[in-house]
Design brief:
47% strand, single chain, 29 strands, binds copper (II) ion, 427 residues, Immunoglobulin-like, mainly beta, six-stranded mixed β-sheet, 3 helices, 3 domains
């Protein structure tokens, strides 16, 4: 996390006129060094995982259209790799072992290179033994700035994270079997991790909420901000939406822009999990809240091919053909054949039936998709993760326009670890 000094520095850099970016696309090089590090949680110091000496990893910022290169230098004593969550990038840069690359062994590096096509709020994380490595801290925000960012005083990234600690306050290293069979591993320390401590009353604020928790679904309420939701999963909404209770499942993001009316307090299900206090005041802007310009979206066919995915298993669930606790279409883990195998540009309408007694969030790599309204069939939000409650069915529409082998899995990482993953092939 940023230190207080870093935070003050970032305020100075943001200034009144917003973040300055070069007018034309450039190239940005970052390095990420996954490593074990000491983290103080409450009263105790313990060994966790992070990047570049930071827990969680540092916030990477690039500009839309930039050619991005990130060298990952694995200093862990185990393998790892990095997935760029929500980015529409070349398949070989997607950071998924078996499907797109080999695990980066200890002491070795891998160069990720991609163009930052979409502006928005994204994040990066380990995709190897992810339930464990992400739970220990191998994640961080990836912000792609608009060429002309909205005029705000503070652009604040908030990571909603939970940790499971024992009675002595130590991070619980082992994952008992029951953490894989139900709603997942729920931490008992729940925090909104954010670099800012204070903000001026009347300031215009952009909040970028990210849920990197391995299993927890947040029900976020925000006090002290008069604003609206401008983006979900990095993609601007066509029309901004009122901020009520924001349901944020693992992997999902939400951007809010608003004016500060008092201490900014974040709640999860009524419990206070973070605060940015008011310090000083400025006159509120007398211009309307900004919205965001949509990223380029593909055009779906009116006659998509149809496919069905049934989510199965879990404690108390019915039988299925897979070997794990969870299964997708009777297979646990990646099946030999993809769920769909299509030519580039094919539109697919996928019906996802949650036949389990638990909620899930299905995340597709390399693409976004539209959630379809269950009653009117109208095209809804353009996302990379869809939250499906126990017993519900969700139809999504996707233009598979990015060639490669792409994972589709539950982003509750305990579920993924025990069977909930499949893949799509785009030729
Ligand atoms: Cu799940």
């Amino acid at each position: 996390m940023l230190t207080r000094r870093d935070f003050l520095g970032s305020i100075a850099a943001v200034g009144v006129g917003g973040v300055m970016r070069p007018a034309s696309a450039g190239s940005v090089a970052h390095r990420l060094r996954p490593e074990a590090l000491s983290v103080t949680i409450g009263e105790t110091t313990q060994t966790m995982l992070g990047f570049n000496g930071s827990w969680p990893g540092p916030e990477l910022r690039v500009g839309q259209g930039d050619d991005v290169s990130v060298q990952v230098d694995n200093r862990l004593d185990e393998g790892t790799l990095v997935h760029w969550h929500g980015l529409r990038l070349p398949n070989r840069m997607d950071g998924v072992n078996v499907l797109t690359q080999e695990v980066i062994p200890p002491g070795r590096t891998f160069d990720y290179r991609f163009a930052a096509k979409d502006a928005g709020t994204f994040w990066y994380h380990s995709h190897y033994i992810a339930f464990d490595q992400v739970s220990r801290g191998l994640f961080g925000p990836l912000i792609v700035e608009e060429a002309a960012p909205p005029d705000v005083d503070l652009d604040l990234t908030v990571q909603l994270f939970d940790l499971l600690v024992d009675n002595a306050g130590q991070y619980q290293e082992d994952f008992p079997a029951d953490q894989f069979t139900g709603a997942g591993r729920m931490g008992n320390v729940v925090r909104a991790l954010m670099p800012a401590r204070s903000v001026q009353q009347g300031a215009r604020l952009r909040l970028r909420l990210i849920n990197p928790s391995i299993d927890r679904v947040y029900r976020v309420q925000i006090g002290g901000v008069d604003g609206h939701i401008v983006a979900l999963d990095g993609m601007p909404l066509l029309a901004p939406r009122a901020v009520g209770e924001i349901v944020l499942a693992p992997g999902q993001r939400c951007d809010v822009i608003g004016d500060v009316t008092g201490d900014v307090v974040l709640f999860d299900g009524g419990n206070r999990i973070g605060q940015v206090s008011v310090n000083g005041a400025r006159a509120r802007r007398n211009i309307p809240l900004p919205t965001l310009r949509p990223n380029t979206m593909p055009r779906p066919s009116s006659q998509p091919i149809q496919a069905t995915l049934t989510l199965q298993g879990g404690a108390g669930g019915g039988g299925h053909g897979g070997f794990g606790t969870w299964a997708l279409n009777d297979v646990s883990g990646l099946p030999r054949s993809p769920l769909v195998d299509v030519r580039r540009g094919t539109s697919v309408r996928l019906r996802i039936e949650n036949a389990t007694g638990f909620d899930h969030v299905m995340h597709l790599h390399g693409h976004h998709f539209w959630e379809l309204d269950p009653t009117t069939d109208a095209v809804g939000d353009y996302r990379d993760g869809t939250f499906i409650r126990a017993g519900d069915t969700r139809d999504i529409l996707c233009v598979l326009d990015n060639p490669g082998n792409w994972m589709l899995h539950c982003h509750m990482l305990s579920h993924q670890a025990d069977g909930m993953g499949t893949w799509l092939r785009v030729r």
